[in-house]
Amino acid sequence: MNALAIPPRLLLGPGPGNLPPEVLAALAQPLLGHLDPVFLTLVEEVKEMLRRVFRTANPVTFPVSGTGSAGMEAALVNLLQPGDRVLVAVNGVFGVRLANLADRLGANTLRLESPWGRAFDRAAFLAAVASERPRLACLVNGETSTGVWQDPAGLAGPVHAAGGLLVVDCVTSLAGQEVAVDDWQADVVYAGTQKCLSCPPGLAPVTFSPRALEAFRARTQPVPSFYLDLGEILKYLDAGGGRAYHHTAPISMVYALHQALSLVLDEGLEARWQRHHDAAAQLITALAPLGFTPLVPEGERLHPLTTLKLPAGLDEAGLRRRLLVEEGIEIGGGLGPLAGTIWRIGLMGHNARPEHVERLVSTLKCLLGR
């Protein structure tokens, strides 16, 4: 039987990205059982490191077994009951997904629509909170489909005053741009491993505030999911509760996340945020002479993922295909109303480095005959 022969790629799309060698080595470690005390010690260390990366003291902080979308679903499925009011700021694909998921759970969903490529209006968001008094107010901190960064600071107080909880999607921002859960007073924050953490896809770090945990425990109906039921998961994760079996955790992925988090903390969060900022700035400056211009205004940009409007006459799909097939470089196209009009270039985690920007820019110049 032939061994796998995977072609090398420089992954500069919206995710996943290339892995550090230390994370690849962690994936090759021998398997342990999901109740092995050595593995459970690693889980506890991962939970503590996640608290530091999320910048929170929340005891209920852990990796959901699933991708970032599982983190999103875990946030909503544990806190919503049919008929609950939900406010979602929608300015991209993942705001749409949050709202659609709330609909599926039987919520009374209010969509605060904003143009794709712009941050939403904070005053309008807070006015909707005051008038609708939603059980959940949801926003995407780093909108992967548009490259928009939305600051959650100052939103939680009014949400709490209206009797609600603040839910924040940090899938593309965690470890690449400032995330400060406790300073934000956010109640549920979720992320993914395959972006700025430089880990394979397959786990979704989440954190629940004590306020969110209290709301969960006050439910009057069962959680409409076994796999994502927070109560059942905590029976397995609670070091003092006897570790009741819930599901078989993805052992090797936990190894990889443990190593990835160690690298993040060794580098330092502020230094890592700055590295992502600098890589995005370098990319924008270097591609400007080729006619690529930022979609998102400065101050609203998501540093780990840059969206660029294309020069006139560019064969968008053809050039992306040539980059991938001929040069081994992956970048992303636009989604929804932005399809065919922008590129999404991810410089995330291990890939947020000057040499990767230089390789992409020099390759594009050659392909464009510049």
Structure description:
The chain has helices at residues 21-27, 37-54, 68-79, 93-104, 122-132, 156-161, 181-184, 210-217, 230-237, 251-267, 269-287, 316-327, 354-368; strands at residues 10-11, 60-65, 85-90, 108-113, 136-140, 142-143, 148-149, 165-169, 188-190, 203-208, 293-294, 305-309, 329-330, 332-333, 342-346. By secondary structure, it is of the alpha/beta class. Strands 2-10-9-8-5-3-4 form a seven-stranded mixed sheet, sandwiched between helices. A four-stranded antiparallel sheet has the order 11-12-15-14, covered by helices on one side. A two-stranded parallel ribbon has the order 1-13. Helix 1 runs antiparallel to helix 10 (251-267), helix 2 packs across helix 10 and helix 11 runs parallel beside helix 13 (354-368). The radius of gyration is 21 Å and the shape is globular. The termini are far apart. The mean pLDDT is 96.
Helix percentage range: 40-55%
Give the total of domains. 2
Rounded to the nearest angstrom, the radius of gyration is 21 Å
Mean pLDDT across residues: 96
State the end-to-end distance. 45 Å
Write down the secondary-structure element order.
EHHEHEHEHEEEHEHEEHHHHEEHEEEH
The helix tally amounts to: 13
Question: Could you name the CATH topology of the largest domain?
Answer: Aspartate Aminotransferase, domain 2
CATH superfamily of the largest domain: Type I PLP-dependent aspartate aminotransferase-like (Major domain)
- Which CATH class of the largest domain applies here? Alpha Beta
Structural class: alpha/beta
